[in-house]
Each structure stands twice: as structure tokens, then as C-alpha cells.
């Protein structure tokens, strides 16, 4: 006959055998503290929003009525203070596509340059897929150039705007291929204000007077907010 004491021992032994084994504190996997330097490369596609400047005489053309899109190419370098917090700097160059084609005898081109600093927070340390969010500030330069040639005279007219990029909201996800390389999508909304404009004119082979060039810069009085919405792919290397 089984006594209550024997039954209690058998029940306790059964629970011990069926329960999962717990690892020691040293065996539990901890999130990897992968701080250190990082280098990133981005490629994407962006569209303009808003206006380049306001006008006292009426509404100025929208950014999208002049510029169709941009193809941003960016390099960035920074430091991870721990598995989550990153601070770095970036430089971006982007060929810009115009909303309308130039005439057959005229050559048109536009480009954009941006540079600044940004901070980001990376979630789910130690896992393969790591979402992140970031915020940046910087400076933007947007240039447009029109060239033509007639009777041996070459003429080039350039115009541009410059200003502060006061907020660049960013989000994405990094998929870690290994301990040093990750890749994933990103989305960015960069808002800024153009503060000054530049204009230049250059003419070559002008009869009698030869080459002529001049340039000037002035402040934009009626400032307004514009933005660039872009998305693409980012690759990052950890050191």
C-alpha cells in the first residue's frame, strides 16, 4: 500500500523529471553589446513636397512642378555607443530629374547635396531583424543648370537654393547577415527652409569680348517649408 509520504516523493520526482532544465546564469544568452564604429551606404528614390519659397505676388510653383524626383546616394559614418544608440554624420549626392524635358537645343541638369548629423535608436538588440528610428539635422543645396550653344557661343545659366534642413525623420529595419554586415529598407522625410539663392551666367567665345562670367547671391525674403520624401535600401558595416 502506498503511503501519503511515498506518494508525495513520487509526485515531486515526476515534476522534476518533466520540468525543463534551466541554464545557469553564464549559459543564458545575453543581447550582444555590439558598440563601435559603423559605415553605411544608402541608395533610394525621393520626391519633393511643398514650395521652394513664398511670394508676395501670388503662389509660387510647387517643388513638384519643377523637379520630378531625385535619386539619393548617401554615405554615412558614426559610432554605436551600445547595441541601441547610434550617432553619426552623413553626406548625400542626388541627381535630380526635372518635371519637364528641355528643348532639343538646350541641355538641362539638376543635382542636390545634403550633409549633416543624425542619431538613431535600434530596437531588439541581438536579433536578426532590428527596427530603428532616427532624427537628423543638416544643410541642403539644390542646383539647376541650363546650357546652350549657338554660332560657336556657349552659354550656361545656373541657379540654386541653399538652406537648413531642420528635421529629417527616419525609420527602417536592419537584417543582420552576420556580426559585421546588415542590410534593409529605410524611409526618410526631410523638411527644411531655403534661406538664400544663387545665380550665375557664363558665356564663352563671345565675339570681340571673349569669355564672360558673373554670379551673385541673395537672401530669400519669403521663406517657406519644403520637404523630400525618400525611401530605399541601406547597407551597414560594423567595425
UniProtKB/TrEMBL annotation:
This is Porin family protein. Pfam families: OMP_b-brl. Residues 12-183 form the Outer membrane protein beta-barrel domain. Coiled coil: none annotated. Residues 1-25 form the signal peptide. Keywords: Signal. InterPro entries: Beta-barrel_OMP (IPR027385), OMP/PagP_B-barrel (IPR011250).
